[in-house]
Amino acid sequence: MSIEKLKIIFNQFQHEGEFESYQELASGHINDSYLIKTNHKPYFVLQRINHEVFKDVPGLIENKVAISQHIRRKLKDLPKKKLKRRVLAFAKTKAGAFYFRGDDGNYWNLMYFIDKSVSFETVKDERIAYEGGCLLGQFLTLTNDFDVSKLIEVIPKFHDMSFRYMQFEDALRIASNERRGIVKEQILLVEGLKAEMHILQSLKESGAIKIRVTHNDTKISNSLFNEKSKGLCVIDTDTIMPGIVHYDFGDAIRTICNTAAEDETNLDLVEFNLKYYKAYTKGFLKKMKSSLTPIELKYLPLGAKTMIFIMALRFLTDYLNNDVYYKIKYPNHNLDRAKNQFKLLQSMSQKMSQIENEL
Ligand code: GN1
Ligand code: MG
């Protein structure tokens, strides 16, 4: 993306500062994001939304803007504290919309950059885990009274296990013999876990677990903290849609409790960290316990196991499909991600009884 092009797109939006420079924010696997520095603050984050993956971008934008506005209204009503939580704010285009569509068909949106914020790819101390838990608990509590029927399903069946198994089985059929051979061990794991990995979906479909507003991409790098490691807000809200609490709790645990990054290739470094699990859960339940039903609470550990598994399955599927979905930095990147998640799952499974004791 050239600087001239980014500047033209940025200038479609309403803002006061003048474009000075940009920096690509390269941690996402789907969209393209750029920090836009202007001649005075606030800075902005300009994001191209991948419309191959997100089929209804205007609907996605409506979802996330509505949730941001809802949270902003509710934060105003909270008693003033030393630290005010933050929420993403979106800029309008000069034509008054929250997104701009270029002649090439690409969709763009612009957010205010939250100044003096930091994010983490992995957790290095319990305080971050605890604060991360408070942040997600607060996000889910503040959105608990939002009418979930107003949200579109941005990616239909996003965390639907039967759908993900179907995609895996399709990929297996068309995969090269070479790739299929390389993942023999992982295929056995996927087959062996099939029944257990469908439990939450059945409870959801039977109505036993309630449908809520969920974020659906709660990895720790999608939370912002201030310089003193206090939680500020959750970001990357593109996948907000109806879901169950286990998706969000589980996906957060998947990254909080992994002692290594999601694509670490030295699997000896990948372990499930119980201390971070305890700290995260403590923060999460502090904000959330009163609005959780007993059945939601009971299944949180299985939620974590299920979300680690579903990511392993999706990375493995993309590897079998010759890497058509996630951005990769080298040929076996998806395979390494899948192996990493399977190792984490194994480590978590060994600690399951201690994990269940935390509730
Ligand atoms: C993708 O694009 P990013 O990095 O925010 C993916 C998530 C996965 C995540 C794994 C729309 O998120 O579901 O958990 O990679 N998003 C989509 O890091 O598929
Ligand atoms: Mg995302």
Automatic annotation (TrEMBL):
Gene3D superfamilies: 3.90.1200.10. InterPro entries: Aminoglycoside_PTrfase, Kinase-like_dom_sf, Pseudomonas-type_ThrB. Transmembrane segments: none annotated. Residues 22-260 form the Aminoglycoside phosphotransferase domain. The keyword Transmembrane helix does not apply. It comes from the Bacteria. GO terms for molecular function: transferase activity. Pfam families: APH. This is Phosphotransferase.
